[in-house]
Write a structure and sequence with these properties.
By secondary structure, this protein is α+β, with helices and mostly antiparallel strands. It has helices spanning 9-15, 31-43, 77-89, 114-125, 136-139, 148-160, 180-188; strands at residues 19-26, 53-60, 67-74, 93-97, 106-110, 128-134, 172-173, 176-177. Helices cover 36% and strands 23% of the residues.
């Protein structure tokens, strides 16, 4: 795989042992197909809410190769991917707010925040989409002392050159510290060697 995306069956074979498809869809879905995509996301492994899971989004323009555009992790993959699909399809709109004594006291616009813009642009620029779950435990053989999900997220994003991915800031959640920036710097500076 190179910066130009998945170009042949050999590239798919590199990814296949580590991923499971959650859903795939086209931009020009009808209402029935949209409902099915939401259902596929909702029903995908709904019990994963206690352990952090890892996901990736691949997309392509018609007649082009699939590229990884985003990799992320969450304690609730289903909700995160549903929210991303909502953002992809959300059209910005202005909301007027009435108060007790004033009609249209102020207004604000929804769908203009960074995530809305990012995922809407992804949706507008591509035609076909695949959401995957990544098996972090089997993908993180070189992780050493690092958490398998953090390590696998960085490794997958690095190997696929995920277009929108950035390492998350160093935070702690449920007793685990996020070390994506540290891992990324070690991989980038070849202090950790990775491959498929």
């Amino acid at each position: 795989m190179d910066d130009n995306g998945i170009k042949n069956i050999e590239d798919w074979c590199k990814i296949k042992p580590y991923v499971e498809e959650i859903c795939s869809f086209d931009k020009n879905m009808n209402d029935k197909e949209i409902k099915q995509v939401y259902k596929d996301i909702k029903e995908y492994n709904p019990n994963i809410k206690t352990e952090k899971g890892l996901w990736a989004i691949f997309c392509r323009r018609k007649d082009e190769k699939y590229k990884c555009v985003q990799v992320g992790s969450s304690y609730n993959i289903n909700k995160e991917l549903k929210d991303i699909l909502d953002l992809m399809r959300l059209e910005p709109k202005k909301i007027s707010v009435n108060t007790t004594f004033t009609k249209k006291a102020f207004s604000y616009e929804i769908g203009r925040d960074k995530n809305s813009e990012k995922y809407r642009a992804m949706y507008k620029e591509h035609d076909n989409f695949i959401f995957f779950c990544i098996n972090a435990d089997t993908f993180s053989k070189e992780r050493g002392e690092y958490d398998s999900v953090n390590f696998s997220e960085v490794k997958f994003a690095f190997l696929t050159k995920a277009l929108l991915w950035n390492p998350a800031p160093s935070t702690s959640s449920r007793g685990k510290k996020n070390k994506e920036k540290e891992i990324y710097n070690k991989i980038k500076n070849e202090k950790i060697t990775i491959d498929w």
